């Protein structure tokens, strides 16, 4: 696994024509990827095979936005990690704040989903983050600790194939990114937390997500312990997503 990533979460958006234009646009912006910085896009599940085809030979990985905690059975509407692997998925978002908010997912269930992803040989991208009320009440680090404790209680601390995405809930889709001071503070805290847990997880990539765009990417990417970005709306614009990727490459150069 690489140490730096830029990942695009397309959410509930896209269709055959738009996906084609988006990936072709991205490939035109970035004819080659830098070997030190990975890129993944997470389309809506029905389009995964199409996006696999469109990204063939580009180095762009394909991810999924969610997964079942179960491998198979009577779970209508669910997708198993093994099935995602079957169609070429490499990364799976788990615990995105929209899953927590609109689908009532809690940290224990998210940990079981992460375990299912690991069990299938894929990499979970575990999203954690505080609400605005929690931040204002000074609970940010306690909330993140609870979310990570729940994760490691299930997946253990000997697996280095996990990506952590710090996404303050109040910064997602709002156009208001966390400040560089807030991001640096939290990412340093998260790195310390991981370092204390075990050598295997000490170096897990920690992505920032929340209104990251072409204009703020360079200052965020330059922060210590920021290993990339999980991008929502800007991931739907090839030039913008490419600019974020280039900012990450510049941060490792
Ligand atoms: C996201 O959906 O994970 C996200 C970070 O969205 P946005 O970039 O639009 O805030």
Task: Give a summary of the structure in a few sentences.
With 253 residues, this protein is an alpha/beta fold. It has helices at residues 16-29, 48-55, 81-86, 97-103, 107-119, 132-136, 140-155, 180-197, 199-202, 217-221, 238-252, and strands spanning 4-9, 37-42, 60-64, 91-94, 123-128, 163-166, 206-209, 228-231.
- Per CATH, which architecture? Alpha-Beta Barrel
Estimated radius of gyration:
17 Å
Content of β-strand:
15-25%
Strand order of the largest sheet: 1-2-3-4-5-6-7-8
Low-confidence stretches: none
Number of E strands:
8
Named CATH topology: TIM Barrel
Shape: globular
* Count of alpha/pi helices: 11
Roughly what percent helix?
40-55%
At the fourth level of CATH, the homologous superfamily is Aldolase class I
H and E string: EHEHEHEHHEHHEHHEHEH
- What is the straight-line distance between the termini? 19 Å
Q: What's the level 1 CATH class?
A: Alpha Beta
| Alpha-beta classification | alpha/beta
Major sheet, described briefly? 8 strands, parallel, barrel
What's the domain count? 1
Cofactors, ions, other ligands: phosphoenolpyruvate
The chain-level mean pLDDT equals: 97
Structure commentary:
The chain is an alpha/beta fold and 253 residues long. The chain has a single domain, classed as Aldolase class I (TIM Barrel, Alpha-Beta Barrel), CATH 3.20.20.70. 44% of the residues lie in helices and 15% in strands. It has eleven helices and eight strands. Strands 1-2-3-4-5-6-7-8 form an eight-stranded parallel barrel, surrounded by five helices. Helix 1 links the parallel strand 1 and strand 2. Helix 5 packs across helix 7 and helix 7 packs parallel to helix 8. Bound molecules: phosphoenolpyruvate. The site of phosphoenolpyruvate has 13 residues, from strand 8.
